[in-house]
Amino acid sequence: MGVSKLDSYTKSELKIADLSKxxxxxxxxxxxxxxxxxxxxxxxxxxxxxxxxxxxxxQHLSELKKAGIINAxxxxxxxxxxxxxxxxxxxxxxxxDFFSEYTG
Length: 104
Fold this sequence. Notes:
It comes from Mangrovivirga cuniculi. By secondary structure, the protein is an alpha+beta fold. The protein has helices spanning 11-22, 26-38, 43-50, 54-66, 85-99; strands at residues 40-42, 70-75, 78-83. α1 (11-22) crosses α5 (85-99) and α3 packs across α4 (54-66).
């Protein structure tokens, strides 16, 4: 069995790539901006705010949740989404470290 091409990258490089992929759609950025503004909300609020289909919003929420950027908790029959504060700060640090490598 051969070595995976991903094995040649550092943990930091892989994390930056994963986060960049999770942030790589304008709808996901809009979702995050809305969550930053309102702190928490349900899927339906995002559907109304972003004028996207519920299935589309759900898919983007799933990607953000998979990346650990947002939290989801059940309340009654609804799922409430919010920014994962620890992850957000970690993400900020990761990107700050990456961008600070530029010496030009």
